[in-house]
Design goal:
By secondary structure, the chain is α/β, with parallel strands linked by helices. Helices cover 37% and strands 21% of the residues. The chain has 4 helices and 3 strands, in the order αβαβαβα. It has a 3-stranded parallel β-sheet with strand order 1-2-3, sandwiched between helices. α2 links the parallel β1 and β2. The radius of gyration is 15 Å and the shape is globular. The two termini are 29 Å apart.
Length: 116
């Protein structure tokens, strides 16, 4: 198997899938979008997933992450038996380490992980 085949098999086999991306120009990063697009090869085998979303952006506005979340939702809608369990909106994070000034994001991430 090549690298993507291994990743795709892990997506098929897992019960919980976390989609995470920084916001670049109001959308999901290219690397994650490529993985999502490559899932089309076996999309009918991807089923019954609990989904969690994590996204970060430098901006603080509520609508900054809409395009990224829409991409996540679009992928979810192609999964039979999906359940969107939680979303973390990491706003105001532009530099490495900025998350330390937002302990509420770490708490939310911990609680989401602990609920699995």
């Amino acid at each position: 198997m090549d690298g993507m085949a291994d990743i795709l098999q892990k997506i098929i086999d897992c019960n919980v899938l976390v989609l995470s991306s920084p916001v670049y120009f109001y959308s999901v990063c290219a690397q994650l979008k490529a993985v999502i697009d490559r899932c089309v090869a076996r999309w009918t085998e991807i089923a019954n997933k609990d989904l969690y979303y994590i996204t970060t952006a430098a901006e603080e506005e509520d609508d900054t992450m809409d395009g990224t979340i829409a991409c996540f939702h679009g992928f979810a809608m192609c999964i039979d038996g999906y359940d969107e369990k939680g979303t973390l909106y990491g706003r105001g994070l532009s530099e490495k380490g900025d998350v330390h000034s937002h302990p509420e994001y770490l708490t939310i991430a911990y609680e989401m992980g602990n609920s699995i």
